[in-house]
Predict the 3D structure of the following.
Amino acid sequence: MSIIATGISKRFGDFVALDNVSLEVPTGSLTALLGPSGSGKSTLLRVIAGLEAPDTGEIVISGEDATALPPQQRGVGFVFQHYAAFKHMTVRDNVAFGLKIRKRPKAEITDRVDRLLGLVQLQQFGHRYPAQLSGGQRQRMALARALAVEPEVLLLDEPFGALDARVRAELREWLRRLHEEVHVTTVFVTHDQEEAMEVADQIAVMNNGGIEQVGGPRELYEEPASEFVMSFVGPTTRVGETWMRPHDLEILLAPSPDAPEAMIERIVHLGFEVRVELVQADGETLWAQLTSDQCWELELAVGQIVYVRPSAERVFA
Amino acid sequence: MTSLLRRIGLRVIALGYLIVILVAPLALVFYRTFEDGIGPAWDALSTPETVNAFKLTLIITAIAVPLNTIFGIACGLAIVRRRFRGKGVVNALVDLPLALSPVVVGLSLFLLYGLDGWFGWLGDQGIQILFSLPAMVIATIFVSLPFVAREVVPTLREIGDEQEQAARTLGANSRQTFWRITLPAIRWAVIYGVVLTTARCLGEYGAVAVVSGRLQGETETATLRVEERYESFDLAGAYAISIVLALIAVLVLVAMTAIKPKEEAA
C-alpha cells in the first residue's frame, strides 16, 4: 500500500505548482506534507488522488502504475479541508455512499456504517444532515465516509484547517490513534509544523513546488538540510551569519570571550517559556528562549547588559 | 407613532403595487368571465377551435420544457465546470433570447425556413416547418431557452465541485456523480427554472404569432386564440381562455411546491 511519486511536475498557466517532485510513502506510514501556502503540497496530494493530472511523472500506488487511472479506480480515500459533505444526504447516507456505489448487500452496508459511526463517535447522529453538525463532527463524518470503502491509502487535505484550535488538537490526537487502529497508509497536508510534528512519523517539507527534505520530526528539527527547513520546522534566530534555535542561545551575566554583548529590549512571559528579545551593539536584534526558572535565577530585567553565547549553531551555504 | 406609520407605509406600498399591477387585472378577468354564470364561459371553452388551441399549447410546452431543461443543465455544467474556448460567447448567447423581442425571433425563423431561406429546401422535400407545429416549437424553445441555465449556473458556482470530487474518490463514475450528487444539489434551481420555462412557453405570443400562420383550429395556440376571440368581440371567450391559462400556470407552481421533499425543512 505504498505510494511512490516520481518526477511529478504540474503547471497552472505560468505558475509552477510542482517541479520534478519525487516522494516515497512507505506502507502503513503516516506522512505529512508540510509547507507554506503555494508550496505545492495540496497539488501533490491531489495528483496522488487523481484529482489533478500531472504534466509529467508517474504515480505508483501499491506497486501498480496509477498515473492514468481516474480517481474512482485508485483505491484512495480523500478528506477535504471543507469537508465536502453531501448536503442532501443524512450522515448515514454520506458514510454509506461508497458502499452503495459498489452495490454491496444492504445488511453489510448497515453493519459497516454502524461500526464506522462508532469509530468516529457519531452513533447518535446517523439521521442528521451535515448542516446540523459542528465542524469537527462533519470532518469526522467525512473521515468515516472515506474509510468506509477500505481505501489502500488515505489522503487528507488540511483536514483540520477550518476548525478552531481546541477541536483541532482533539482531532489530531484522534487521527493518530485511528491510524494505530486502522493502519492505513496515510498522507496529510498541513501548513502547521506543530501538527505535522505531533501526528506524522514522516514529514516532507515542501517549498516553491519542490521537496526540501524528508525525514522524521526529530531529524528535521535537529538536522535541517536547509535554512528554509530550519526556519519552517521551528523557531530560529540569527547571530551574525549563523542561524540557531533560540533555546540554544545561552545568556551569561559575566563577560566571556566567545559571547558578544547585548542589551535586553523586552521580556515576554508565555508561561513555562520566556522569550528574551535582545539588541546587539551593531543594532542587530535576536531572541533567546528560556524557561521561566532560568529567567528567575538570572534575575533578568529590561535594559540590562548581558552576554549571549551560542551553544549550537548552523551555517547554510 | 412614526415608526408604526413607516412600517405600515412600506406594506401599503408593496401591497398596493401588487394589487394595481397584478391582482386587479386578474380579478377583473375572473369577474368578467363568470359575470353571467359558468355557462357562457363553458360554451366558449368547449368549441373545437379552443380545445384544439389548448391542445396545441400543451403539446408545444411538453416538447419545449424537457428539451430546454436538458439543454439548460448541460449548458450550465459546461459553463461552470468546463474550460473551453468561446465559453464567454456561449454564456452571453444563452441570455440572448431574454434581450431579443419575440417578434424578431419569429421573423428570423421566417427568414431561415422561408422559401428563400437557408433551410427553404426542407419544404421541397415535403417537410413543412413554417405554419405548422415544428416552427412553433422552435420559436417557443428559442424564447424559453435561458431560464433553466440561468437558474442552474449560480447554484453550481455556489456548491463548488468538492462534493463531486469526493464522490469520484469514493468510486462514483461521472454518470453516478451526476445523478447522485450534482443533480440533487441543484434540484431546486432546476425546478424553479422548469416553472419559469413552463410559464414562458404557455404565455408565448409574439414569436409564435409570426411563424404559425394562425390557422384557426390548426396552428392557433391558446394565447393566439385569446387575441383572435378578442378581435372578434367575443370577450367572454377571450376571458375564459385567459383564466384557464392562468390556472394552468398556478397548477404548475403548486405541483412543484408539493413535490418538495421534507428534508429541506431541516
